[in-house]
Amino acid sequence: MKNKNLILFFSLVIFACQPIEKFDQVVFDNNQFSKFDLFVNSIEITQVFENKISEPYIGHTMKISPSDRIIKWIEENFQAVGNENKFSVKILDASITQSQIENTEAKNFDEKMNYRYDLFYLVEFNLYDNFNNLIASTLVESVRSTTSGMYISIQEKENIVNDLIYQSVNDVSTESKNLIKIYMGEFLL
User: In CATH, what is the architecture of 2-187?
Assistant: First the structure.
């Protein structure tokens, strides 16, 4: 009887010590995204969007906000290689929200409520001549969302949100490549 209890105890300990799913840390390497060499004299980045510091917005609570990520991508991946014209980038929106949603597929021991994260990017690209006349313009947007449990670690939450931002920047990069090629193709190297 003692051996059975001992075996049962060790079986429970071994079963309880099974590894849980872990997310790898997201690495932001802007070299993985599209690069743009433009026949322009200068590139100007303007952030029209203001980070909101009230619920449900969470961008202000992050180490590096979604707007900082998109600005860094533009700074590292857009290069001016000409001697005339001006390229302007306006960040119109870079908001991320967190809201609670009901987990309709929850089983007996699953969490009944989850968090939903929504990220929205809206970026405007404008090309001006030396007299500040608009030559070409295009808008790029990305909308993505993901969910997580409510009772996760801070590290897991950061990884989930960073993956959402990474995927969204990738969307913006891909769509920018397509639209800039269509509307400003003659100014691309």
Answer: 3-Layer(aba) Sandwich (3.40)
